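Budget justification aside, the reviewers requested a transparent look at the raw inputs and outputs of the sequence design task funded under Objective 1. We therefore reproduce one unedited record. The lines immediately below are the structure tokens for a 148-residue chain.
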């Protein structure tokens, strides 16, 4: 009887260990690839629509902890990119830039309001750090999840 209990316990441990070896932690709604549908960069004296031309596109790729954004204008061969870590807490999306085409943005943290509705993700908010002085630039972006 003792041997049977030991075998059962050992079997349970092996099954749990095997099962947990495939567990990668909880996923979140942001994980995956997103394509920009529309956006606005609202400056003190003007509003810039994004994409500005039919030749522009942008994608944002997110895993559990990191993001990377690439914006390309094929008519001018311009590429803008940034990447770093992110967190999502309730309706707040926070980007910590570790890499950026605009060098002055490296090391900065940006806070955005975030809403997800099906395969649409909207982020909006000031394009500056919360304690940074200077002109208030606002960003409003709508992204659509790319199907796997």
């Amino acid at each position: 009887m003792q041997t049977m209990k030991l075998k059962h316990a050992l079997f349970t441990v092996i099954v749990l260990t095997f099962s947990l070896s495939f567990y990668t932690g909880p996923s979140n709604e942001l994980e995956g690839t997103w394509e920009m549908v529309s956006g606005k960069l609202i400056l003190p004296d003007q509003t810039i629509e994004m994409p500005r031309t039919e030749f522009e596109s942008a994608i944002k790729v997110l895993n559990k902890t990191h993001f990377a954004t690439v914006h390309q204008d094929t008519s001018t061969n311009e590429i803008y990119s940034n990447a770093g870590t992110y967190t999502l807490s309730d309706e707040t999306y926070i980007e910590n830039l570790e890499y950026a085409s605009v060098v002055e943005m490296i090391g900065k943290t940006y806070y955005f309001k975030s809403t997800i509705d099906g395969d649409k993700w909207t982020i909006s908010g000031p394009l500056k750090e919360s304690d940074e002085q200077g002109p208030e630039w606002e960003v409003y972006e709508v992204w659509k999840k790319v199907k796997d």
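Confidence is low (pLDDT under 50) at residues 5-23. The radius of gyration is 21 Å. Computational costs for records of this kind are itemized in the attached budget.
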